[in-house]
Specification:
The protein is built from 14 helices and 18 strands. With 545 residues, it is of the alpha+beta class. It is elongated and about 150 Å long.
Length: 545
């Protein structure tokens, strides 16, 4: 059944919308990387208390025990491998598949996968003697643990600092207490725990831990191939938080207090809420996208309809204009062609009478008048034919310097210019134009010829050819200091066979031809004159090169 009623179309649109939303929501929920079906190699480095290397024994530490338990629950077999160089090179090269705990940095995501976070970290700068937190230009020695990401963090915050790497956090504090360095950069919880230990080397030392602004989130690192395993382990860690297993692991490491456990729980719960929210947002986004698409389609259809209606109205208007022009053309042509015919017919009787009486002189005079009328008709027909060809005979469009076109047109009317003593001034730096070179020369030839014919009794006849800028587009002009044209005739001068002076030797086609050629080139032509005795300026626009 055709969808003709708006209600039926709306119903079908809503069904499509619902189906698309359901499909998008399902895709968003189901789209997860697969877990490789093999034992995965997971790397670690000695970084107490998160990862502790024990020669000849399995590794231990909070992140090792947490990830090992989550992987066991998820049914993912793991094989632990110590990699002192750290996670970046190990995961990029494929030396290992996973890493238990890795700081989530934007630049890392370009080369490896990081699961959603399951721990947060903040860092501290430990100083002696009540010193304030230094500025960015701090250039003294700083002790850090031998972890590449810590090196990067200190370099970002204190580019000029000299770094001294230590195997563990307590060694960094010892170097600070003994004066070997001016500061120690440590994970905040580690810094507070070591300070509480009251190391013998630091007895009596006045140490202060300054918390650095900003924190970091840490998740399970993986190669892109093993991304599914990292995400699956991260999901199991959330389950461990819900059933209390994670709290037991945190309690096993006195390094972590109750606040740390609560913060980690809050983080995991927030991540789970965010994931559910993303599914909802994904479904709603798909629904919104389909709605917008339908609205856009409707708007586009309306625009197309409006455009078609406007185009039809324009075509009808153009057709009416053409019909009016055709009627005017028919009347004008019949009138102007009839005039020389009437002359011929009138003098034919006089010729017959003169021939019968043998009046040779009168006969020659009458024949001359008939020939002049025939010549005028011939010129009219030729110029009408030329006018009809404009826009129909296609010549290749070419780039041409406007000054060269002026010189060509000038050479064609040079005889008349010399006869009337007209001086032509051509502006320098005229822009190039593109179009039918021969037709453009005809435009200038007719304008120059027209200006010369209507100089009147000007003692210093002068024609100026140039260009001016109008809204960033060149407007070319041919200006003369001749008779001028009254404003009421500014439109009429471009009409076919319209001559302001009936005694003029022209046919009245020249300016009509100029208008036709300029419009075919996509331009516009008009005349500017304040009236009789003020000269005239014929202006026109043309497409640029």
């Amino acid at each position: 059944m055709p969808l003709r009623s708006p209600r039926r179309r709306l119903g079908v649109g809503l069904l499509i919308l619902a189906a698309a939303a359901a499909a998008c929501a399902w895709w968003a929920a189901a789209r997860r990387p697969e877990v490789p079906k093999r034992t995965l190699l997971i790397g670690y480095q000695h970084n107490p208390p998160y990862q502790v290397h024990r020669p000849g024994q399995p590794p231990t530490g909070l992140s090792v025990e947490t990830v090992a338990e989550a992987a066991r629950r998820a049914g993912i077999p793991l094989d632990w491998k110590e990699v002192p160089a750290g996670p970046d090179s190990a995961l990029k090269s494929g030396a290992v598949d996973l890493w238990p705990l890795i700081t989530d940095l934007p630049e890392r995501r370009r080369t490896l996968h990081i699961s959603g976070p399951w721990m947060q970290a903040q860092h501290a700068l430990v100083l002696r003697g009540g010193r304030e937190l230094p500025s960015r230009d701090f250039a003294e020695k700083v002790a850090i643990t031998a972890i590449p990401v810590h090196v990067r963090m200190v370099r970002d915050r204190f580019p000029g600092a000299r770094l001294v790497e230590c195997p563990e956090g307590k060694h960094a504090l010892v170097k600070l207490c003994t004066g070997e360095v001016s500061a120690a950069f440590l994970e905040s919880r580690l810094a507070l725990a070591v300070l509480r230990e009251q190391l013998p080397e630091c007895a009596g030392a006045d140490l202060h831990a300054h918390m650095l602004p900003g924190g970091y989130r840490l998740g399970v690192g993986a190669t892109f191939e093993s991304a599914g395993a990292a995400d699956r382990i991260r999901d199991e860690i959330s389950s461990m938080a819900n059933d209390g297993t994670l709290a037991v692991l945190f309690a096993r490491h006195s390094f972590f207090g109750l606040n740390d456990t609560r913060a980690t729980y809050d983080l995991l719960e927030a991540q789970e809420r965010n994931r559910r929210l993303l599914w909802v947002i994904g479904g709603l986004s798909c629904a919104l996208a389909v709605t917008l698409f339908l609205a856009w389609s409707l708007r586009a259809a309306r625009k197309a309809t409006d455009r078609a209606r406007h185009e039809l109205e324009r075509a009808v208007g153009e057709l009416e204009k053409r019909n009016a022009e055709l009627e005017r053309f028919t009347y004008t042509v019949s009138h102007d062609l009839r005039s020389p015919l009437v002359t011929v017919m009138g003098f034919l009787g006089a010729v017959e009478a003169a021939a019968a009486k043998g009046q040779t002189a009168q006969l020659r005079d009458d024949m001359a008048r008939i020939r002049a009328a025939a010549d005028r008709m011939d010129r009219l027909l030729k110029e009408l034919l030329e006018l009809s060809r404009v826009g129909r005979t296609a010549r290749p469009s070419e780039e041409a310097a406007f000054a060269d076109l002026v010189q060509e047109a000038r050479s064609l009317v040079d005889g008349r210019l010399r006869q009337r003593g007209v001086r032509i001034e051509v502006a320098k730096g005229l822009p190039a134009v593109r179009g039918d070179r021969q037709r453009l020369v005809e435009v200038l030839q007719n304008l120059l010829d027209n200006a010369t014919k209507f100089m009147g009794d000007q003692r210093d006849p002068r024609i100026e050819v140039g260009a001016r800028q109008d809204q960033g587009r060149p407007v070319f002009f041919v200006r003369d200091n001749g008779r001028g044209i009254e404003p009421r005739y500014h439109e009429k001068v471009f009409g076919l066979f319209d001559r302001l002076d009936p005694t003029d030797e022209g046919t009245g086609v020249g300016l009509a031809l100029v208008k036709r050629i300029v419009e075919v080139h996509g331009g516009r032509v008009w005349v500017e004159s304040e009236g009789l005795g003020a000269g005239s300026t014929f202006c026109f626009t043309l497409p640029g090169a």
